[in-house]
Amino acid sequence: MSGDGATEQAAEYVPEKVKKAEKKLEENPYDLDAWSILIREAQNQPIDKARKTYERLVAQFPSSGRFWKLYIEAEVTILFYFFLISASDGNCSIHCSDRKQIRNIAN
Question: Which stretches make up the Suppressor of forked domain (predicted)?
């Protein structure tokens, strides 16, 4: 086993409330309070990390337009940021600090 995997796992912090919500979902996969915690956490993560939560959410509630909307908005938001970055590379219509924040969000 390589040290890289262990380092990556150790570096990824999972809040206690998220661990509790995951445990609740093991017992009851329809627990909306637990899903709300996971959704809030996903909304504060880059899409590449949040995508797994959104995919689980819409798999559990496939007919919920509200949950599909959350997932789609997260995906579209990142596309919008990429558009802003590419559009602003030619001219400086976005301040450099804003561009740096957008890149951080996109990564």
Answer: 17-76
Contact 30, 59 (CB under 8 A): no
100: which 2 tokens?
A: 């740096």
d(CA 87, CA 91): 8
Per-domain residue ranges for the chain?
15-106
Class of domain 15-106: mainly alpha
H or E element in which residue 97 lies: helix 96-106
State pLDDT tens for residues 62-107: 999 999 999 999 988 877 777 777 666 555 454 444 555 555 555 4
**Spatial separation of the C-alpha atoms in residues 107 and 104, rounded to whole Å:** 5
